[in-house]
Amino acid sequence: MTEWNPTLRQEVFAEAPDTEPERQRYFMEQCRILVEQRARETGHVPTACVVNFGCQMNAKDAEKLQGILEEAGFQETDSEEADLVLYNTCTVRENANLRVYGRLGVLNSMKKQNPEKIIALCGCMMQEETVVKKIQTSYRFVDLLFGTHNVFQLAELLYRRLTGERPVLDIWQGTDQVVEDLPAVRKYPFKSGVNIMFGCNNFCSYCIVPYVRGRERSREPEDILREIERLAADGVQEVMLLGQNVNSYGKTLAHPLSFAQLLERVEEVPGIRRIRFMTSHPKDLSEELIQVMAKSQKICRHLHLPLQSGSTRILRQMNRRYTKEQYLDLAARIQEAVPGIALTTDIIVGFPGETEEDFQETLDVVRRVRYDSAFTFLYSKRTGTPAAAMENQVPPEVAQDRLERLLAEVQRIAGELCGKDTGTRQEALVEGLDDHDPALVTGRLSNNRMVHFPGDASLIGRLVPVRLTEAKGFYYMGRMEE
Ligand code: SAH
Ligand code: SF4
Ligand code: F3S
Q1: How high is the mean pLDDT of the chain?
Q2: Are 321 and 285 in contact (CB under 8 A)?
């Protein structure tokens, strides 16, 4: 792959179109020529493995990256023995970074066996200067680095690598560009994430996302609807609208449109049977949205509403811009307007200055709202965020103890809630065969709980009525009904 004629390389760059996505389509084609040539030389089609760390936004980027690699001629694989390995990284908590460094060591030993192996890194970690410096000095076997703003450029960057440049490094500080119409490989044929916005403007004081994902930008509603119509035509039943704060969707558009209005338009797309979205910031969740959810036939009865802390004092330090009372009031209004809705949340324990009293406030909210499930995190110090410079960092053993107590409470309540729908008939979207028993299939209910029931592979991707016969901790057993 690395053999190259410099004159030809120059010609290719001179001929590349200036506009997107045409430019990237052109580079996908150029990569494909080289990859096919390589396949002829070695007798096997070069393989590529994309490993995703992080959130649903990252997972969506990974599908785009995979789509580009496929167009560039690579064969997709799950094995990191692949000819090209691309890590799409996350840096939201320190643990996410440590996992990447650990696994890079393993890739390095594989590369010693196969020096032609291409190791590429992208995603949120790459937007941090300290990380890039560390990779450049201590992980010199990495071939290709890029960030969150130029995911769409993978083919062009890869072409530079395939034609001999090493390392290829291209990290943008920010962008207002949204490139449409690039290929993507979808993980599931029957459901799909759809970006509606990128970036975040909230600057919660603990969070690194606004620094690594840049300022908030919304996609044009027409582009979003066109994508959803295409997905529907392709057999997709369920869409998940994605953004760091979907409730502020549309504010930056030339013709502003609220998130609730966008949902109403998505509701009208024929063929789409279910709509989900992620993530909602409580401060921006409007009454209009609650009303749209209440009357919708397609929006799922599940809302992820990150709390972060139940203490008004800590919430202020976190720059969340709501109080405990406002959050409780919002949750109650939603539960009243959408009966049976499942609320889930994210909670951080051990934020700087958090006292036992503050933590008790969090437990109080957990008990009052009664979440279906909650992601609980130990506060992780992120360099460059305001909270990292705060005094009174909570000792790790105190934070750990709170995390355990919180988890016990969350699990107790979630366990109690799971049984509440036993005996009812609900629609389930069948996602696959049961992992443990091939005579069963696994389906997802509107409220995001799973149900296992007798069935076969022909049901995968179908929305079917199921009677919930038994609650088992966090999921149900059931039987299909006509
Ligand atoms: N935009 C989403 C969340 C994105 S990050 C929102 O506002 O809800 C996902 C979750 O990671 C957050 O909800 C928060 O609970 C957690 N998180 C973010 N930064 C963190 C940090 N520094 N330490 C621990 N958890 C953090
Ligand atoms: Fe981070 Fe807050 Fe933005 Fe969510 S809303 S991504 S927690 S800054
Ligand atoms: Fe992680 Fe980036 Fe998402 S930091 S949580 S992958 S936006």
Answers
A1: 95
A2: no
